[in-house]
């Protein structure tokens, strides 16, 4: 069975993206080797879409797992859809291609399938992921997103990436790119936080109207990395409504929320480094939620964000002050 195409969506540039992706982000205290191990399991289970980023600092391990699975004949390179992201310290146009080349070198791959701008706000260039001043404030800077985008277009033309897109953009920031004079390529996707507590229905409708795929991260709620997430955040998968729907279908709440996203035309990323759950997360193509289920899950929306990027609220491109 051709997994890549039976469960994939066609992007506005003609490429295909598998609708279910494997997320590789790990909290700082997770050993790097875990990322390699989990990626191998994910590919064995059937995942063909691997979502990664320079920020996660484990691309060497993830790349090693992909190359191993190619070497042992499990997959060919073209079966894998690999995403990496341009971090905020590399937004100046002259830093974009070297940043992608650095990721490719870590991965040991010739190209990535998708290269996206990780967040809309820029930070001071350098080796620090979160550059801070003497008082511990993150040092932000303003780079015109359109200039950064043009540099991504050049990476596509150079064959270093098949597709280009964005992440954590609101509709105004998407419009900034879409209305750019001399635009060569539209973003193929906008990867944003989305789950039943933040269903992003307005942004989803906007993206669909522009032929941009919405890709959901934190689909299963979120990990509790104190660097990014408040420890008192609600546990999505403990929600009684989700548990009841899961019980009715003989499924897990995680499978229900993934199915919810797929049925509304959202590409869903599922992150787990637990073998049993990785297998479980891929088993979402053999059941369907009823219209009543979908409505009940939509009713859980409370516009709650796990990831807020609080440190960037003063930036002119801070994305979450807009409704969508």
From TrEMBL:
SUPFAM superfamilies assigned to the protein according to its UniProt record, in alphabetical order: NAD(P)-linked oxidoreductase (SSF51430)
Keyword tRNA processing part of the UniProt annotation: no
Lowers pKa of active site Tyr, annotated site positions: 85
Keyword check for Ribonucleoprotein: no
Protein name from the UniProt record: Prostaglandin F synthase 1-like
Keywords: NADP, Oxidoreductase
GO biological process terms on file: alcohol metabolic process; hormone metabolic process; monocarboxylic acid metabolic process; steroid metabolic process
Gene3D superfamilies, sorted: NADP-dependent oxidoreductase domain
Residues of the NADP-dependent oxidoreductase domain: 20-301
GO MF, one example: oxidoreductase activity
Residue positions binding substrate: 118
Pfam families: Aldo_ket_red (PF00248)
Gene: LOC103261880
Protein family (similarity comment): Belongs to the aldo/keto reductase family.
Active-site annotation: 56
